[in-house]
Amino acid sequence: MRISIIDKYIQEYINANLNADLHSLLLKKSPFPKVSMQEIVQQIKGKQVAQKKFPFLLKEGIVFPPQLNLEQSSSDKTALFKSQFLKGKKFIDLTSGFGIDAYFLSQNFEEITLVERNTELLKTVENNWNVLNKKANFINQELEDFLNENRENFDVIYLDPARRGEQKKKVFLLEDLSPNILEIQDKILSISDQVIIKLSPLIDLKYLISVLKNPEKIQIIAVKNDVKEIVVYLSKQKTEKISCSCINLESDEEIFNYDFKDEKNAVSQFGEPEKYIYIPNNSVLKAGIFNLISEKFNVKKLHPNTHIYTSESKIENFPGRILEMEVVDSKQIKKKEQFNIISKNYPLKPEEIRKKYQLKDGGDSYLIFTQSKKGKIILKSV
Questions:
Q1: All residues at 6 or more sequence positions from 296 whose CB lies less than 8 Å from its CB, including other chains
Q2: Cα(281)–Cα(317) distance, rounded to whole angstroms?
Q3: Strands 276-280 and 306-311
Q4: Contacts of 167 (CB under 8 A, 6+ apart)
Q5: What would the pLDDT profile of 139-186 be if each residue is shown by its tens digit?
Q6: 105 pLDDT exceeds 60?
Q7: SS3 content of the chain, % helix, strand, coil (to 5)
Q8: Measured between alpha carbons, how far is 67 from 199 in angstroms, rounded to an integer?
Q9: For residues 353 and 360, is the Cβ–Cβ distance under 8 A?
Q10: What percent of the chain has pLDDT over 90?
Q11: Quick one: pLDDT band at residue 343, thresholds 50, 70, 90?
Q12: How far is CA 308 from the centre of its chain?
């Protein structure tokens, strides 16, 4: 890390160019002999990301790492949510990265340890934590080496493993990650009462349950209906039940809690569209609890492959979008009308539907193209 980047005049230059064209800026010569234009642009990009993702870092003296480290970091929203469930004496993050998760998750702990293999990145985090007046033990070491040498126990171990190289498949295994959780889970469970693992939203939940030791809780965390991460909690002791939570932050939707085995025993009701239409949020869809949702909220599913539900009376606490709609004929759709178009279990995509019916995008009204057990249907906002 180049400490000279926090020089007052360099920071003034960075702040003055926050909205500049970065490609053009890179072609210019740096006005500061000790700092390259590439380093300056890196800081500008960092501040731009921080404005949306972790605004608490917009302080004088904060240094930002390369773009990849910023992209891999949690937002302060998801990290702050996870922190409310944790407290104890000793917390360790074995894959520190830029340290966003550790900053929040460790706030109710007396002693904090961060392990990171990347020397420059760890120096950056140490600088920033000093600016933020937060103390920790910073260990620049390979995770496996640390575990082999460590003789301490911890109340909570946190890991955010990264993918190894380029992965073309959308679904990956824990063996594809660094560190390989399957290789170290016995070791980390031997030195901690609780292990928390943050994973990609693409990973399969049934697969996780089948390969991890003693999973006790799973959180599917979305922000504004965009699933950001799967968080798995492992315990030293084997538990009979695995509690799961579907969370949609920055919405007015309640957290939906269930037991992992509930879906297997649940049975869906089916029916044709009634007055109210329900579209589960994406954390629920990721959970795959399609029968449980029908049973729990007493709503009817339109079709086995259509994850849309209906009822005559309004269910206020449904975890997703609630719309009052009616079935319409395609002839009732006027050209140039404005709609938000949703296509589920239907052969045409929204853009194809918009083109076919010559519709405008947006507005407050909705058109849903889908299927019930009786066949294709179109639903329109009332």
A1: 258, 266
A2: 12
A3: antiparallel
A4: 176
A5: 999 999 999 999 999 999 999 998 765 444 544 789 889 999 999 999
A6: yes
A7: 35, 30, 35
A8: 20
A9: no
A10: 88
A11: very high
A12: 23
**Which pLDDT does position 141 carry in this prediction?**
97
C-alpha pair distances (Å), 332 with each of 85, 354, 380: 51, 15, 10
Single-letter code of the amino acid located at 330: S
Q: How many beta carbons lie within 10 A of that of residue 90, not counting itself? A: 18
CA distance 37 to 31: 8
What is the secondary structure of 211-250 as a DSSP string?
HSSSEEEEEEEEETTEEEEEEEEEESS--S--EEEEEEET
Helix (H) or strand (E) holding 145: helix 143-149
User: Average pLDDT, whole number, for the chain?
Assistant: 94
Whose tokens are 């460590």? That residue is: 150
Both structure tokens of 290:
């399609």
Tell me which amino acid residue 191 is: I
- Count of alpha carbons within 13 Å of 87, Cβ hemisphere only? 3
Measured torsion, CA atoms of residues 147, 151, 157, 159, in degrees rounded to the nearest 10 = -10
What one-character DSSP code corresponds to residue 176?
G
Which of these, 163, 161, 165, 177, lies nearest to 94 by C-alpha position? 161
Q: What is the pLDDT of residues 366-375, one digit of tens each?
A: 999 999 999 9
Closest listed residue to residue 79, CA positions, set 58, 98, 100: 100
d(CA 13, CA 31): 9
What is the reported pLDDT for 170?
47
Q: Cα 95 vs. chain centroid, distance in angstroms?
A: 17
Average pLDDT estimate for 362-367:
93
CB 139 within 8 A of CB 116: yes
Residue type for position 311: S
- Contact present, 258 and 293 (Cβ < 8 Å): no
